[in-house]
Amino acid sequence: MFRVRIEILILGALLCGTAAAQQRPAEKAPAAPRPPSAADFSFDPAVVAERDISVLIVPGDETTLSSQMAGKIRRIHVGLGEQVKAKTLLVEFDCAEQEAQLQSAQAEYRGARETHLTKLRLQALGAAGELEVTVAAAAADKARSQVAVRDSFMDYCRIMAPFGGRVAKVRAKEAESVPVGQPLLELVSSSALKAQLFVPASWITWLKPGMEFQVRTEADGRRHRARVSKLNARVEGVSQALEVEARFEGQTDTLLPGMVGTALFPPRSAGRTR
Q: Fewest 10 Å CB contacts: which of 70, 123, 127, 217?
């Protein structure tokens, strides 16, 4: 009797397990990994341009003005960030010595010229030969050339603005003695700003001079119109990037050289971007 009860209990447990297994939903087998397709590697230049193409705003004209003579600075007439016009006096040197040398050369020229004229009068009277007149003329020409040299040195005493712009940096101080070639001022022009950017080399198939796009600056988030002006003739060998230069159009009062932004190109169709 006891053995019969044990067999009944075992049979009941087996029947309950079978019923529970039938009630549970069958677990799905893990799906096989999908092989990559061409769509996974699609190239959307509009997305790349908006996210990855950084723009550096550079001045249309910029220069570093250096000393062309060794001397003492008498006065600096401009300050940092100041707006100047073309031909404005920027730096003035103490040129007392150069001025004295110029006056000495002028005096020597006057004496040599009078000697030449005297020899010509004596030649007319038969008191001077042709050789004496020729030597006097050569001495007068030499003295005149020295005047021209000293006068050119005087031009180095005053540094003028080659174009209109803003003073980006002042590298010298008043009453400072500087050698030849010492940088004094950095001048940038903000009237014709340029955008410098690097794009993938594959864009050469559709990116052409004259194409318009927008530049969104990070400083204020504003968008400015720009137009491609130049494409570099060489692609960077390592990065395979092409340098592009663009000109801004419209108002650029809020832009300054050195600002950065993002290039926003118009969307291109898939057939034209490959």
A: 127
Interval 80-92: pLDDT, tens: 989 999 999 999 9
Q: Please say whether the beta carbons of 120 and 145 come within 8 A.
A: no
pLDDT tens track for 59-77:
888 899 999 999 999 999 9
CATH of domain 45-60+192-273: 2.40.30.170
Q: How many CA atoms lie within 13 A of 271 on its CB side?
A: 0
For residues 253 and 54, which has the higher predicted lDDT (pLDDT)? Answer: 54
Rounded Cα distance between 140 and 134, Å, is 10
More confident position, 87 or 10: 87
- Residue 12's pLDDT is 55
CATH 1.10.287 fits 96-155, yes or no: yes
Q: Rounded CA gap, 242 and 202, in Å?
A: 9
